[in-house]
Amino acid sequence: MAMFHVHVESARKLPNQDWFGKIDPYCIVKCAHTGGILTQKTNRIKNGGPNVTWNETLHFDGVHVDGDVRLFIEVYDKDKLKADDLLGFAVVDLGPFVSKHPPHPPGSVPQLSYRGIRLKQYAHGPDTPAEVDLTVTMYVPLTGMPTRRLLSSTSLAEGTASIDDIMASYPTAP
C-alpha cells in the first residue's frame, strides 16, 4: 500500500455556467484503486472565474498499488439555488506511474507533474479547452510505520461503487 499526495495547482479556460457574476470553482479528486474509491475536494474559489489557482494538496492514504489506480478529476461551479454545475472532468491512469517505480522501496518518493490535463464535459465526448494542472507524489511507508486514514473510502469489495459507476455518472453528449 502507498499514500498519494495530489497537489491540485490550477485550472484554465473553465466555462462560465453562471448567468450573473463569475463562477465559484472547486475540484473533486477521486482515487480509484483495487481497495476502494477515496474522495477529497479543494476549497471553492469564490468569484474565481475561468482561471483559478487552488494550490491545495489532497491526501490519499492506503492506496493499493498492486492493480488499477486512476484519478478522476472533476471541476464544479458552486451554486446556491441549484445543483452545482459540472464544468469538466478527466481521468488520469496512474498505472504507468506506479509500475515505473517497482518494487516500491520503502521510503521512496516518486513524483510526476501533469500539466494541461484537458477536461471533458461529456463522457466519450471531445475535450474542452479547459485544463487543470496537478502533481502526484507517491509515498511508500517504511516497514512498520503506521499509516493515517485521512479520508472516506467507498469499498469496491462491498459492491457500492466501481470505476464503471464513476464513468456512468458523467453526462453523455446530447
Automatic annotation (TrEMBL):
Positions of the C2 domain: 1-107
GO molecular function: metal ion binding
Keywords of this entry: Calcium, Metal-binding
Keyword Metal-binding: yes
SMART domains, A to Z: C2 (SM00239)
UniProt cross-references to InterPro entries, sorted A to Z: C2_dom, C2_domain_sf
Protein's name in the database: C2 domain-containing protein
CDD domains according to UniProt: C2
Record keyword Metal-binding present: yes
